[in-house]
Amino acid sequence: MKPVFTYTKGMLPVSTSYCPGCTHGIAHRLIMEVLEENGKLGDTVGVAPIGCSVLAHQFMNVDMCEAAHGRAPAVATGIRRAQPHKVVFTYQGDGDLASIGMSEIIAAAARGERFSTFFINNGIYGMTGGQIAPTTLIGQRGTTAVEGRTKAQFGMPIKMCELIAQLECAVYVERVALNTPANVRKAKKAVQKAFEVQEKGLGFSFVEFLSTCPTNWGLTPSDALQWVSDKMIPYYPLGVYRAPQPEGGQA
Amino acid sequence: MAEKVLMKGNEAFAEAAMRGGCRFYFGYPITPQSEIPEYMSRELPKRGGVFVQAESELGAINMTYGAGAAGGSVFISSSSPGIALMQEGMSFLCSAEVPAVILNVSRCGPGIGGIQPGQADYFQATRGGGNGDYHMPVFAPCNMQEAVDIIYEAPALADKWRTPVMILADGMMGQMMEPVALPDPKPFVEPEEIPANKPWAITGYAKKPGGARAVVKSLRMQPEALEEHVERLFARYDAAKAELTRYECIGLEDAELVFVAYGTIARLTLEVIEMLAEQGIKAGLIRPISLWPFPYEAFDQIGKRTKVVVSAELSMGQLIEDVYRGVNGRLPVELIHRTGGIIPTSIEVAQKAKAILEGLK
């Protein structure tokens, strides 16, 4: 019998700390699968954020460090300088990246740092218990806005891909979703592309994953996936926001 | 052979760090140390090193954490309010046991304060400043040669004890020109050498001897595990104290009055001691060179003639807390200080010292 689906060596054989229906596990696996396929697990350094995925280093089978809340892109900048030939990535949630870490992510993207950032956007603070995030949708409820987010109080949700794509040295920027098998396959291609751009030394690469948080959204895992389709994707359109020009093409 | 040159303090500090093996510098401009990032931006790339102008002091300290965790030898510098911004990162460096050399060319506070020299960062330097139970070695040189020698030695101490090391200078030292003997440069460590030299570093495990995966972290969710970790850090501090505790004692045997002072004011105190001697008053000096660990044992050398111990500082009485601990109730303790960026004249300090002695009669 030929196995059609197996564990990836990129994930350590342990149970994760994630809630049922959370898509962190899918995102972890996609990144690690690509690194395994590229033969890079032993030549990669990852940075875990603050948030539910602070423990990513217990699950991902690569050298890793923790970063203070929002600081992962600065930490990765330092790692990149000390280890210029390794694959370097940050893995960050929306509170981490789009709120407290806005300065670090924009500065790293503007400098065109040669690492990849994987951005988990589930529109809420997960680990601290469901507070409004910079990416929470209008009308979406959180423990700091029990009646739902309003524009008057919080302004509008931040679209990170659109923001990052303004920066010329951010050479690959794509938004994907983890809500359907077809989208998961597209997400893997985006991860492959991000690492490819990094290995070619072209600049900064950024992949945003629209993700779920059934626990803090108060939805079942399957309803949460549907919610990504119905609510998140219309506000956060999927697609490539910036990509390198094809070789030989006009700039 | 050491090379003797006339240099501005800030540039000499930067030169000493490079010669001591620091290959990476992450900087952000702030007065009175902006000559350091400028000097590093010119000099480091020429020698195969790396200069990055960070987006903020937060960025700089976290780049330091990343490069240090990946095995690089890092030197950074800032001044008081910038150092305050870095404190979050310093707490992480200490818990995650990441070596680095951090220079504070201090000014005066609180808040933006002013840009003149001050010593009001004593608490910030020696009492943590970031969250949690930790210490880091802090050295306070009093002239440029001593500063250069300590900065040159600091990367090796940081690596040996797996800790950031702070050098506390001040704006006076940073801006002043003095002749200084520069030690011979040590070679930079290549990225390929790091896995063997620092197996704990996050370099990727493919070429690491033994191939073990490395994780650099400070989070420990289980209280027992965190307590064990912190106890281990403190056991290391105890082990390091003999090597790190440094001080100079002058004329303690027959001094009526003993000054305790570090940095710029300690240098000035040497002149005060001569001035008092001309007037028939014998004064001595305990000059802590390491502020942490603090040289409490130096106070055991105070002789029987001493009537009072005086903390001389450019702050409102911060060093004096360690002076009280060192004296331990054996003698009266007094304070001579200026703050706000004012450096007293030696005449002013001498007059205040005489007034203190007269007040005891």
- The mean pLDDT of chain B is 97
Count of discrete alpha- or pi-helical segments spanning 4 or more residues of chain B? 12
Top-tier CATH class of the largest domain in chain B = Alpha Beta
Q: State the CATH topology of chain A.
A: Rossmann fold
CATH architecture of chain A: 3-Layer(aba) Sandwich
The CATH homologous superfamily of chain A corresponds to Thiamin diphosphate (ThDP)-binding fold, Pyr/PP domains
Strand runs of chain B, count:
16
Number of domains of chain A: 1
**Biggest interface, which chains?**
A-B, 36 and 42 residues
Assigned CATH class of chain A:
Alpha Beta
Continuous helix count of chain A: 9
- CATH architecture label of the largest domain in chain B: 3-Layer(aba) Sandwich
Strand content of chain A: 15-25%
Number of domains of chain B: 2
Low-confidence stretches of chain B: none
Multimeric organization = heterodimer
Helix content of chain B: 40-55%
What does this structure look like?
- The complex is a heterodimer of chains A (251) and B (361).
- Chain A has 251 residues and is an alpha/beta fold.
- Chain A is built from nine helices and seven strands.
- Chain A is globular.
- The N and C termini of chain A lie far apart (50 Å).
- The mean pLDDT of chain A is 96.
- In chain B, strands 2, 3, 4, 5, 6, 7, 8 and 14 form an eight-stranded mixed beta sheet that branches.
- In chain B, helix 1 (9-19) packs parallel to helix 2, helix 3 (57-69) packs parallel to helix 4 and helix 10 (263-278) crosses helix 12 (346-360).
- Chain B has helices at 9-19, 35-46, 57-69, 80-96, 122-126, 144-161, 171-175, 194-197, 223-244, 263-278, 319-327, 346-360; strands at residues 3-8, 24-27, 50-53, 74-78, 100-108, 114-117, 138-139, 164-170, 177-182, 215-216, 247-250, 257-260, 283-288, 290-292, 308-313, 333-337.
- Chain B contains twelve helices and 16 strands.
- Classes of the chains: A alpha/beta (251), B alpha/beta (361).
- Chain A binds chain B through residues 41-45, 47, 54-55, 57, 61-68, 71, 74-87, 103-104, 106-107, and chain B through 24, 26, 50, 52, 54-56, 58-60, 62-72, 74, 88-89, 92, 96, 191, 194, 202-207, 211, 213-219.
